[in-house]
């Protein structure tokens, strides 16, 4: 007989508890290893690479290639000098990175027609650039003459028709002239200019403008006249945009009524017959030989 060693009841009883305890300890240890402090946990989950404001992020940069701008030329028209010089001054004259010689050559290339007169005694050089600028301004930047030409242009603006597009073109033309005149004088209270601006629009528009003044109780100055004219023309433009659809609907309704209209049962009127020349017939004469000695039945000529 072999003796089989028997485990003591105490050892057999404690082994399962020890095994469970070891598992719990191991689990707790693993959880502690995974568990971080609140600061560490927040750092691990929320920390992100800081982006320096001075560092441009590495992102695809979209660029648009703009076309080269061509500056306007100047042909000696005094009314266009201010617009020409403002464009050249903004693009070239105020740019310190451009050499004065290049500025001279570029300004020279933009002068055409009568404006080339100022180039007769100047040679391309750095020193002559400012001489060229002064010569241009002395010859063409004449406030009194330019002011007179602008007043003449305002007088020559054509009277607009009742069409909204024509009235809008006239309004823009007058607005541009008045904007240029503001550099020389204040016309906001000048009655002759206000009446002149009014006269460039149809009577129906002037009547609406007078109604607006009457409702307000005071006369409009020049700026208020231009604002109210703009509103009246805008209302007219909106009306004309809806007019084709309205006319089309009216035309379609008239066509529908015309198709539904019953036809008249009355007989058509007979066509007038053309009148033949009147022929007199005498039964006593022969219709063949025109003889009165015999009748038509006994005429011998019919037998020949």
TrEMBL record:
Organism expressing this protein natively: Ancylostoma ceylanicum
Pfam families found in the cross-reference section: DUF1759
Protein name per UniProt: Peptidase family A16
Residue span of region Disordered: 252-280
Ranges of Basic and acidic residues composition bias in the record: 252-261
Biased composition annotated in UniProt, kind: Basic residues: 262-274
């Amino acid at each position: 007989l072999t003796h089989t060693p028997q485990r003591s009841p105490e050892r057999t009883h404690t082994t399962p508890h020890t095994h469970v305890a070891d598992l719990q300890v191991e689990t707790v240890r693993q959880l502690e290893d995974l568990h971080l402090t609140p600061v560490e946990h927040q750092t691990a989950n929320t920390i992100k690479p800081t982006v320096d404001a001075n560092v441009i992020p590495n992102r695809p940069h979209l660029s648009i290639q703009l076309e080269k701008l061509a500056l306007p030329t100047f042909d000696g028209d005094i009314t266009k000098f201010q617009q020409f010089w403002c464009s050249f001054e903004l693009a070239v004259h105020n740019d310190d990175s451009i050499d004065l010689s290049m500025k001279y050559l570029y300004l020279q290339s933009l002068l055409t027609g009568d404006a080339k007169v100022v180039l007769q005694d100047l040679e391309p050089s750095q020193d002559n650039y400012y001489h060229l600028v002064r010569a241009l301004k002395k010859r063409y930047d004449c406030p009194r003459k330019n002011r007179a030409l602008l007043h003449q242009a305002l007088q020559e603006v054509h009277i607009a028709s009742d069409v909204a597009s024509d009235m809008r073109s006239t309004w823009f033309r007058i607005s541009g002239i008045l904007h240029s005149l503001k550099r020389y004088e204040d016309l906001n209270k000048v009655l002759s200019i206000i009446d002149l601006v009014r006269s460039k629009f149809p009577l129906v528009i002037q009547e609406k403008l007078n109604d607006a003044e009457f409702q307000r109780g005071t006369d409009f100055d020049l700026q208020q006249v231009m604002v109210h004219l703009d509103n009246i023309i805008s209302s007219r433009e909106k009306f004309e945009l809806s007019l084709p659809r309205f006319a089309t609907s009216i035309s379609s309704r008239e066509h529908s009524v015309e198709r539904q209209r019953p036809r008249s049962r009355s007989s058509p009127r007979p066509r007038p017959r053309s009148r033949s020349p009147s022929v007199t017939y005498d039964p006593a004469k022969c219709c063949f030989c025109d003889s009165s000695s015999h009748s038509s039945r006994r005429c011998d000529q019919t037998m020949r």
